[in-house]
Amino acid sequence: MPGRRKRIAKAEAINNRSYTADNAPPAPKTWHDVSNKPLSTRRSVIIVTLGLFQILAWGSSFYLLSVLALPIAEDTGWPTTTVIGGVSLAMLIAGFASPRVGKIIQVRGGRLVMAFSAVTFAAGLAIMGLAPVLPVYLAAWVLIGFGMASGLYDPAFATLGRIYGQAARPMITTVTLFGGFASTVCWPITALLLESFGWRWACLAYAAAHLFLALPAYLLLLPARAPGLVAADDTDGVKSALPANKEATALWVVGIILTTSGAMLALVSMHLLALLQTRGLELAAAVAFGALVGPSQVAARVVELTFGRFYHPLWTMLVGVSLVTIGILLLWMEVPVIAAALITYGAGNGIISITRGSVPLVLFGSDRFARTMGRLALPSLLAMAAAPTIGTLLIEKGGASLTFLVLTSASALNVALALVLIVGFRR
């Protein structure tokens, strides 16, 4: 009995003592799943899995028709504009589905959502490859739209935020590094498949990649259950959320910036070669200059990954929208150094893609991050769906000058709104 009393007294003394700097309790664990198995050892696997299949997801959806649109139209006799319109249809579907996807990730985690994206991508691409008539082709893009809603950047970012909380910021940047190679990797692969087997077999090959590579990877390598969020060290030294009275306004401002940026990206991506040719460049030269945009995006993301932890994500957003504004303005002014304008523009877009995840994570917190990403994706994807058509009308009515005027004005608005966020909402 005396021995037992001694042990009890010792335990009470330990529980009641005050910790000092030299005698502190262990630091809290980082984010973990509900089984209490630490996810830190699986971090690299999760990032690489999401990153690699971002290349496949973007390359077999958003970038697919850059190579296949004309061959599909020539082979089937379907109108080229309608063939290209498949991507816009998919973005519309993705936009309306995104809020629901965000809610599901918030409750259940991203594993089943990402797996669903692989299945719907595979089904849509298989139907496209077998489509006998135009309505079936368009129905295939409806399925691909559900794949885009559940498998592109926004759900991938939401998945990381759901698992790692505030610590997800550098992981989001890393995933965008992978995604930045989507066109670089998939355009040559698509062209090779087209040349060797035809456009239908190219679609079927991508469907098989989603079904036999992406689907098993998501099911086997992503956490099986939604993580239980626990207190974690704020590794970036950034506060996790805004006061409730500022949150609604900040959400609107961030939404406008991301929506405008997405629309500009879609418009310029679709019409860049045409805009450069109006400046007197031959097609081959326009293609060569246009190829500078992709590497510039990746290079800017590498810089942000290296130095981003030293400053608030809102400064990243300001730099991104400012570089886009400068790049477009230089193109509008017809400066002799076109390469410099396109590199600046590409770097800005590369940085903005990171802020799609990092800014909402910091401003609105990790508790509702997945739901917030779904809400922000809706207007952005709808704007991206409409932007190519708007660009066509602008070029037809006012030429390159009017188009660049509209783009510069929209981008300058983004700069002003980013400054508003820094002044009014940074914590």
Which characteristics define this entry?
single chain, 427 residues, Growth Hormone, Chain: A, 16 helices, 78% helix, 0% strand, globular
Commentary on this structure:
With 427 residues, the chain is mostly helical. It has two domains: 47-221, MFS general substrate transporter like domains (Growth Hormone, Chain: A, Up-down Bundle), CATH 1.20.1250.20; 244-425, Growth Hormone, Chain: A (Up-down Bundle). It has 16 helices and no strands. Residues 7-38 and 229-240 have low confidence and may be disordered.
N-to-C terminal Cα separation, in Å?
56 Å
Q: What is the H level of CATH, i.e. the homologous superfamily of the largest domain? A: MFS general substrate transporter like domains
Briefly note the structural class of the backbone: mainly alpha
Strand content: under 5%
Rg: 24 Å
Overall pLDDT confidence: 80
Query: What shape does the CA trace take?
Result: globular
- CATH fold assignment of the largest domain: Growth Hormone, Chain: A
Number of domains: 2
Q: What is the succession of H and E elements?
A: HHHHHHHHHHHHHHHH
Architecture of the largest domain in CATH? Up-down Bundle
Give a quick account of the main beta sheet: strands, pairing sense, barrel closure.
Answer: none
Helix content: over 70%
